[in-house]
From TrEMBL:
Belongs to the glycosyltransferase 92 family. It is found in: Membrane. It comes from the Eukaryota. Pfam families: Glyco_transf_92 (PF01697). It is a single-pass membrane protein. The chain crosses the membrane at residues 12-30. GO terms for molecular function: glycosyltransferase activity. This is Glycosyltransferase family 92 protein. The keyword Lipid biosynthesis does not apply.
Length: 529
């Protein structure tokens, strides 16, 4: 029983609000029409004169083509739009009948971010191109191109046309490496299923000192190209590598509002020492966008929109249903963002970490990843393996939703802190090297899969198994992964212990997360709480 219900405050507020709104509108109309009160309004509360009204539309001037190009470049990093604008109209080609520089209007686009190289027998959907002159690359420097192909084991001859700043003619180079980013035993090779590939062209002698601006893929060297990808060569801003980049595959949470969970996850990542988190976005809830925009404006997060290539559904909602029911297609598609994230960061970070938003690599004896790697893992790895490894993997352990206890000591933790609340985990880890996550060394890995490198430079991939006493992967789920469901109860769910390692960040994490949630208006002060 509350006294408030006897006060008609809500009605009064609403009335006042309407009056204020209405008077402002009238004021604007009069102000800009130069009319006085009585001329157009018989009664200012009821009559509105459309002939005099000025609707509030965006009156910013139309951006210049250069502004537009910069904006497009930001949204679609694989498009060489700045370069094209600079040389548009200049004669850029091998000769009159050979290898003309394609206008951006000649490109065969697909689903926003893909470009198609089509032959009679196959189509190659290109996503990105990268300059690679890492020390261990035997043929360096090379241009690597990521894409998906609808035919398995494509070994046809195709060519790169490389375009350099200030040169009016392209340089030809035949593709010398086809790297299928998938193990055949993982299955699904029905014709028409897209397979993720990374292919490479060498930069020919005479041009090795130059970084190409863009690359076109063609079947025959002189073809008029229908593709043109900007060559990505991101170098560290201050000349020195930062420590850790985290990569997150295409977010598909249109209806799942994971925004608050995401804030807790990001803040914990920053506390353990992630320098920046790179997201790919298929479709997300508007509250998640709000969170991502906030961190993006702070420079701590980068969000790259992505679609599925070809004739796969990109219709909001249907996309989610498709990925849920076609698990192999989902996995095949994921290889592109993982490897794009690797290649745009090879020179900028010491380690690349692929994580899902329900996973955290938890250091045990130390406070953060840098201490973990520098003072624990690297010395141990050097001692047992003698050399630096391509990756350092951590074991996976489940923290399941229904494992939560309601004990007194949780009282000081707000309900909205999912990870801090869930400190009960299964005793058993999943098997060594299964469902693991890694710190990848970008100087050594060639292609990445979700859990481990698929291929490495200079031979077989090496890995160091991080001991569970030093760190492990905390995996927050409602259930075991599909492949472990049958044994889930017996091996994991019925055998739990309390693991409060995460509480070493408790106070800082609560205050950081709460600050952000308040700033983003997640708590409505008028309703209290
Ligand atoms: C144009 O260049 C190509 C490749 O270098 C060459 O094979 C061809 O003969 C040239 N054609 C003309 C008309 O110069
Ligand atoms: C296309 O496929 C046919 C039949 O398999 C083959 O004879 C032909 O050489 C292929 N063409 C190309 C360009 O790969
Ligand atoms: C790679 O290219 C960059 C310029 O993009 C250059 O500064 C660097 O020295 C090159 N590194 C190697 C190993 O060739
Ligand atoms: C890579 O691994 C394979 C299979 O284990 C082995 O046969 C081969 O000798 C290894 N290659 C190198 C360069 O170590
Ligand atoms: C796991 O625990 C549940 C509930 O305590 C029980 O019903 C079930 O039989 C147990 N399963 C196994 C395999 O021990
Ligand atoms: C999991 O734990 C049970 C005991 O609770 C044990 O019998 C079993 O061998 C363990 N399984 C694995 C895969 O470690
Ligand atoms: C989250 O979404 C709901 C539903 O659209 C909306 O009512 C709420 O205001 C949003 N929260 C924030 C913080 O924007």
């Amino acid at each position: 029983m509350s006294l408030v219900r006897w006060c008609p405050t809500r009605a009064i507020h609403r009335g006042l609000y309407l009056i204020v709104l209405w008077s402002s509108l009238c004021y604007l109309i009069f102000r800009f029409s130069g009319q006085d009160d009585t001329a157009s309004f018989v009664n200012s509360n009821t009559k509105f004169v459309p002939l005099e009204a000025e609707p509030l539309i965006d009156r910013k001037p139309t951006p210049s083509e250069l502004d537009l190009a910069n904006q497009i470049q930001k949204n679609v990093p694989n498009l060489p739009i700045i370069y094209w604008q600079k040389y548009r109209g200049k004669l850029m080609k091998m000769n009159r009948t050979c290898a003309k520089f394609p206008s951006l209007y000649d490109i065969n686009y697909n689903n926003m971010y893909w470009q198609i190289l089509k032959s009679s027998n196959w189509s190659f959907y290109l996503y990105g191109a990268y300059y690679d002159n890492r020390t261990l690359v035997a043929m360096k420097p090379v241009i690597r191109i990521l894409g998906m192909n609808d035919r398995l084991d494509q070994k046809v001859k195709i060519y790169c046309q490389l375009w350099f700043e200030g040169h009016t003619q392209p340089v030809f180079s035949q593709v010398f490496e086809y790297n299928l980013m998938w193990y055949k035993r993982w299955g699904d090779y029905t014709k028409g299923t897209f397979k993720p590939y990374m292919i490479a062209c060498q930069i020919p002698p005479g041009y090795k000192h130059l970084v190409p601006e863009s690359v076109s893929l063609v079947e025959k060297p002189c073809d008029m190209a229908k593709t043109n990808l900007r060559v990505i060569n991101n170098r560290p801003e201050h000349g020195k590598k930062e420590d850790f980049a985290v990569c997150v595959k295409g977010l598909d949470f249109l209806h799942d509002d994971l925004s608050v969970r995401l804030v807790e996850w990001l803040e914990l990542l920053f506390l353990v020492g992630a320098n920046k988190v790179f997201f790919y976005q298929l479709e997300v809830h508007h509250n998640i966008s709000k969170v991502l925009n906030y961190y993006q404006n702070q420079g701590k997060v980068e969000v790259t929109p992505i679609t599925l290539p070809g004739e796969q559904p990109n219709i909001p909602g249907l996309l989610h249903m498709y990925l849920k029911s076609k698990l192999t297609n989902k996995r095949l598609n994921e290889l592109i963002p993982y490897n794009d994230c690797l290649y745009k960061n090879i020179y900028r970070y010491k380690y690349i970490v692929l994580l899902d938003t329900d996973e955290i690599i938890m250091p045990k004896g130390v406070m953060n990843w840098k201490e973990l790697m520098d003072t624990v893992i690297i010395p141990k790895a050097l001692q047992t393996k003698k050399t630096l490894q391509a990756s350092y993997n951590v074991r996976n352990v489940y923290f399941m939703d229904n494992m939560k206890y309601s004990q007194d000591w949780y009282i000081k933790i707000p309900n909205y802190m999912h990870m801090l609340q869930h400190v009960s985990r299964s005793v058993n880890y999943t098997k060594p090297r299964q469902y693991v996550k890694c710190f990848h060394d970008p100087e050594q890995v060639l292609t990445l899969h979700n859990h481990f490198p698929l291929s490495c430079l200079g031979g077989n991939c090496t890995t160091y198994d991080i001991e569970t006493a030093d760190a492990h992967l905390q995996h927050y789920r409602t259930d075991c992964v599909k492949t472990l469901k049958r044994s889930c109860d017996k091996e994991f769910r019925n055998n739990t212990i309390i693991d409060t390692t995460i509480w070493k960040y408790r106070d800082l994490l609560i205050s950081q997360v709460t600050k952000v949630l308040v700033r983003l208006d997640f708590f409505n002060p008028r309703r209290g709480n």
